[in-house]
Amino acid sequence: MGTLPTLTTARLVLRPFSPGDAPSVRELAGAYEVAAYTLSMPHPYPEGAAEAWIAGHDAAWEEGREGTWAITCRPEGNLMGAISLRQNAQHRHAEIGYWITVPQWNKGFMTEAAQAVVDFGFAEMGLMRIYATHCARNPASGRVMQKIGMSREGVLRQHVLRWGVPQDLVYYGILREEWQRARETR
């Protein structure tokens, strides 16, 4: 598949992570507020975990499993978060997942990044469907999904445990044809 491409938007550059990003990942993703709204983010963030996570990105992309981008602000290049597209090539669908640092919440950055990744998934990867989930107690993530054209598809009640507490997962999805129609009106 080659190298993970860099995606640009009006305010952001989505680029591959580099080993030098590890200290920032550990600090930003390790914030309790960020970890609390994700399903797998460790807290506290252990030494070496960011390096190991970043080291696996190239192989995951090359094998067609997952693309993970660093969300950076233009023009400064400051790391603000991460966004990934986990692909199931057999079924031509993918799951989008993301996190963004607390000071950047409610500024539209995640919607901008997610739209760029959805556009890439449909236009460049030939996906038929992209979906996402969020914990019901994090409605802001659901609003991002709605803003990028996803439809709410259902709730899996007490589907996962996060730090020992049952969590409902809300599912959203968008089909290629829905994306194409929405793109014509943008």
Please give a structural write-up.
- The protein is α+β, with helices and mostly antiparallel strands.
- It has one domain: Gcn5-related N-acetyltransferase (GNAT) (Aminopeptidase).
- It has helices at 22-29, 32-36, 49-55, 57-62, 109-123, 139-147, 176-185; strands at 7-8, 12-16, 66-73, 79-88, 93-100, 129-135, 151-162, 165-175.
- It has an eight-stranded mixed beta sheet with strand order 1-2-3-4-5-6-8-7, with helices on both faces.
- Strand 3 (66-73) and strand 4 form a beta hairpin.
Order of helices and strands: EEHHHHEEEHEHEEH
Low-confidence stretches: none
Q: How many strands appear in the DSSP assignment?
A: 8
Characterize the overall form: globular
How much strand? 25-35%
Largest sheet: 8 strands, mixed
CATH superfamily: Gcn5-related N-acetyltransferase (GNAT)
Q: What structural class results from the helix and strand content? A: alpha+beta
Average predicted local confidence, pLDDT: 94
Which architecture would the CATH scheme give at its second level? Answer: 3-Layer(aba) Sandwich
Strand order of the largest sheet: 1-2-3-4-5-6-8-7
Chain-wise SSE layout:
Elements (H helix, E strand, L loop, with lengths): L6 E2 L3 E5 L5 H8 L2 H5 L12 H7 L1 H6 L3 E8 L5 E10 L4 E8 L8 H15 L5 E7 L3 H9 L3 E12 L2 E11 H10 L1
